[in-house]
Amino acid sequence: MMTINNYNDMDELQSALMKTHQGMLAFVVSEQSLLLRVANGWQYISLGRVIKPNENSLQIEKISNDGTTIEPVNGNAVGEYNLPSSGTNRHILHERKLRLVALNQPYTGDMHGVRDVDYECFRQSRRANLKGTFRAFITSRVQNLDSLVRARDSRLPVVNMKDELLFNQVRDMFTGWGAPFPYPPKIYSFDGRNIFTDQQWQQKLIWHGSDKNGIRNMDASCDSWSSDSISRFGMASNLLRGKLLDQEKYSCNNAFIVLCIEVTTERE
């Protein structure tokens, strides 16, 4: 009979990495998530929806840095989506939504500035036959992450390339808690690869250059994304810790994931 090891939070799980072997299962209590030990770390397993006597009372809890739960998301907001049954994905029902997609290769901190990355987001999205406008999900000297999407669109859901739900609303990413994923995330590149499983991205980290609220951190943006020096630093997030905007500084010579966010939809 297969056993599942329990861990209080992602920090405890990560610290036990070297004591585990491939094929082991782990349950993270703070996130209520099930993960499988694979060659490069841990991979989320989709559990499907929570079954309760009254499904209208369904709540997804946000997780703070120390693993304690804080202000649950309103159940009505969750109920607007087609949450999965076992073995299915959470496909969004809204006609309007914004996509979060990875560029097709990792980048060091020297991306030749945000404008070049914005153009690469545009170019790759067009090659993928996506008609919305995409911009780089990194900060600049004059741009915060929380202002990339217009205020009037801040209630739109955020999905991946396959229209699977990542965040209930855009603004859920900028609540000051590092943007914890409310569901086991799947993020794809413009050419359709899952960045969590594809070996193109050996490090499951994204560059972002912001604080937990999505505000730019000019001391941690690799000289405005123009340096790959080992002595310069950029703010990044380890996606395996379950957050989009976790706060970890890395030398700019590292090659990490770069995300693009859709800021205007195909239906506009």
Description:
There is one protein chain. This protein starts with a strand and ends with a strand. It has two domains: 4-79, YefM-like fold (3-Layer(aba) Sandwich); 98-264, Mannose-Binding Protein A, subunit A (Mannose-Binding Protein A, Chain A, Roll). Helix content is 11%, strand content 23%. It contains four helices and 14 strands. The strands form four sheets. Strands 8-14-7-9-10 form a five-stranded mixed beta sheet. It has a four-stranded mixed beta sheet with strand order 1-2-3-4. It has a three-stranded antiparallel beta sheet with strand order 11-12-13. With 268 residues, it is of the alpha+beta class. It has helices spanning 10-15, 75-79, 114-127, 222-225; strands at residues 4-7, 25-28, 33-38, 41-45, 60-63, 69-73, 98-102, 133-136, 158-159, 165-167, 205-207, 233-238, 248-251, 259-264.
CATH architecture of the largest domain: Roll
Q: What name does the CATH topology of the largest domain carry?
A: Mannose-Binding Protein A, Chain A
Strand order of the largest sheet: 8-14-7-9-10
Overall number of structural domains: 2
Q: Assign an overall shape.
A: globular
**Helix amount:** 10-25%
| Mean pLDDT over the full residue set | 82
How many β-strand runs?
A: 14
Please mark out the parts with pLDDT under 50 across 5 or more consecutive residues, or reply none.
Answer: 52-89
What's the number of helices? 4
